[in-house]
């Protein structure tokens, strides 16, 4: 049974028999007619017309070699040059054994000798040829990128392995190619123009891999991999790519980035080799004066460090190597500045690597989808700490924790955060939630709905990094927020730059319009503090008052707060 045919639907493959002898056509028709829908042509010209008329519907052609007008060799030559016809399998009908080699060179898949005195052999060969062709077409359809025709990532890695296996002594370069700001090209020139650019890039890559006997792949929207022998220099490769895309890019040499892992180590899995090329490519993402970057020892050390951190996170969570530090927020609009709340900030005390800065591991874990584990750790630790301080000092110090866009979109997020608060005997308003401005601008309707539900349950939500994102004014008027935290970049130079201070004043006006308090973080100097206080900022956070400290050190500020409350009561 043909595994590609569904006999329940009575599907019959179409077979074209091409022979100038009517007797031969009738004999083959009789042999195959029960299992296939047989069509006929008496010469090569007629055969090609039928193939084109039945475009994509002929599953196999049985082709005689010696015919008038256009012989079988000419038919195969023409089919080979036609993309629509090249995939149709051809079985040659011949009594000439000497014709087999030439027929194979022109694309034939099998032979049926004349006379046709073995019907079962003919049926078996036809069936097998059709099955192999259909399997090949399925594989070709899944292994290639639909737009460019280059290998997709998975098949590319498979062929890298094959190329290595059959060419063990040839040194190969792993290369990653990216088109800078491709999304802007799509936005400004339209999707068709962007697709044409990608096709042009793929054609340039195809010419390279054909010439150099390598392979190429499109791995995502605007990124490509190449695996080439160490012949052409990266500069020569970049020139080929630039020339191939110059009709679409105003300055292709500044818009194309090339990452190179030279003489790639074959002991590494293909994925690892091209990760290194991509790492080099990404290292110059914002450097528009350089188009080529090489994977080097510094990148190798960074990669090893990152891999160590990724591998160690599970053990670190189990052994509580992570700890939460707390940075105080002070209300500054009263006669005396008062510590009112804190922000939870994670630290990693690694047993071998020492204290690791958050900027070294948080972006890494965000890229690898591991940051949610850290978020949940911080939520649980912070809630437990609020309860411990409440039991010890008799007052609640609210603590702000970060909530990412991914956290918000988790189906069990609200149940989980509510459960953490409830299990520690706290009110929802005691655990403050911080959401970045950018989180509101992506999936905005869904995020706004979730934040509204949180606020309906009593949670207070602060917008972090206000001023660094792209919120429109009409969007701001409808955002559910309880406080605005100014982006640290605006605070850094307000005492030296009038424009930055004007921006702060403008954002204060927006906050006043929204009737929400304003928090400034990153305050380090007296002059910054004075300017912000005069501008009406409600809360300040930064080294001016306190750096982030462990819970036990933070208790000194709680004691001062408690003592201050007692003084007022007297």
Can you describe this structure?
By secondary structure, the chain is α/β, with parallel strands linked by helices. The chain has three domains: 7-142, Response regulator (Rossmann fold, 3-Layer(aba) Sandwich); 153-295, 2-Layer Sandwich (Alpha-Beta Plaits); 326-569, TIM Barrel, CATH 3.20.20.450. It is built from 23 helices and 20 strands. The strands form three sheets. It has an eight-stranded mixed β-barrel, surrounded by four helices. A five-stranded parallel sheet has the order 2-1-3-4-5, with helices on both faces. A five-stranded mixed sheet has the order 7-8-6-9-10, with helices on both faces. α11 links the parallel β9 and β10. α8 runs antiparallel to α9. The longest helix is centred in the N-terminal third of the chain and has 25 residues, at 119-143. It is elongated and about 120 Å long. 33% of the residues are buried.
């Amino acid at each position: 049974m043909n595994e590609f045919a569904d006999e329940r639907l009575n599907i019959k493959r179409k077979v074209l028999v091409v022979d100038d002898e009517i007797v031969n056509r009738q004999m083959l028709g009789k042999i195959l007619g029960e299992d296939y829908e047989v069509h006929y042509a008496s010469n090569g010209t007629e055969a090609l017309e039928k193939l084109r008329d039945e475009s994509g519907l002929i599953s196999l052609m049985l082709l005689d070699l010696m015919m008038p007008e256009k012989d079988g060799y000419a038919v195969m030559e023409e089919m080979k040059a036609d993309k629509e016809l090249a995939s149709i399998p051809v079985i040659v009908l011949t009594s000439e054994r000497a014709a087999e080699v030439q027929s194979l060179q022109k694309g034939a898949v099998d032979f049926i000798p004349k006379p046709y005195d073995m019907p079962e052999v003919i049926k078996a060969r036809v069936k097998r040829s059709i099955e192999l062709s259909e399997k090949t077409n399925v594989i070709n359809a899944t292994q290639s990128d639909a737009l460019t025709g280059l290998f997709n990532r998975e098949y590319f890695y498979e062929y890298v392995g094959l190329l290595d296996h059959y060419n063990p002594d040839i040194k190969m370069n792993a290369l990653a190619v990216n088109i800078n700001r491709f999304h802007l090209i799509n936005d400004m020139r339209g999707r068709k123009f962007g697709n044409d650019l990608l096709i042009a890039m793929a054609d340039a890559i195809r010419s390279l891999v054909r010439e150099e006997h390598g392979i190429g792949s499109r791995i995502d929207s605007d990124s490509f991999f190449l695996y080439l022998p160490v012949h052409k220099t990266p500069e020569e490769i970049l020139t080929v790519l630039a020339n191939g895309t110059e009709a679409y890019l105003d300055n292709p040499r500044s818009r194309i980035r090339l990452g190179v892992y030279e003489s790639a180590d074959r002991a590494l899995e293909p994925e690892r080799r091209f990760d290194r090329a991509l790492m080099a490519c990404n290292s110059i993402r914002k450097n528009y004066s350089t188009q080529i970057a090489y994977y080097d020892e510094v990148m190798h050390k960074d990669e090893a460090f990152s891999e160590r951190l990724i591998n160690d996170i599970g053990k670190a969570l189990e052994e509580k190597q992570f700890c939460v530090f707390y940075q105080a927020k002070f209300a500054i609009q009263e006669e005396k500045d008062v510590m009112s709340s804190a922000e939870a900030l994670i630290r990693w005390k690694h047993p071998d690597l020492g204290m690791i800065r958050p900027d070294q591991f948080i972006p890494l874990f965000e890229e690898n989808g591991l940051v949610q584990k850290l978020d949940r750790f911080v939520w649980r630790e912070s809630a437990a700490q609020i309860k411990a301080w409440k039991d010890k000092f008799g007052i609640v110090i609210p603590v702000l924790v970060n909530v990412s866009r991914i956290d918000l979109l988790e189906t069990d997020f609200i149940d989980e955060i509510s459960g953490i608060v409830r299990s520690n005997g706290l009110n929802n308003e005691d655990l403050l939630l911080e959401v970045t401005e950018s989180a509101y601008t992506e999936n905005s309707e869904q995020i706004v709905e979730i934040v509204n539900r949180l606020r309906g349950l009593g949670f207070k939500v602060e917008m972090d990094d206000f001023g660094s994102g792209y919120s429109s004014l009409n969007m701001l008027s409808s955002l559910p927020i309880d406080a605005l935290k100014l982006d640290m970049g605006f605070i850094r130079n307000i005492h030296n730059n009038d424009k930055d201070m004007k921006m702060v004043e403008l954002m204060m006006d927006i906050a006043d319009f929204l009737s929400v308090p304003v928090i400034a973080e990153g305050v380090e100097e007296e002059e910054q503090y004075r300017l912000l206080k005069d501008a009406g900022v409600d809360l300040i956070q930064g080294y001016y008052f306190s750096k982030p400290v462990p819970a036990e050190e933070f208790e000194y500020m709680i004691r001062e707060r408690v003592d201050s409350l007692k003084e007022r009561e007297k």
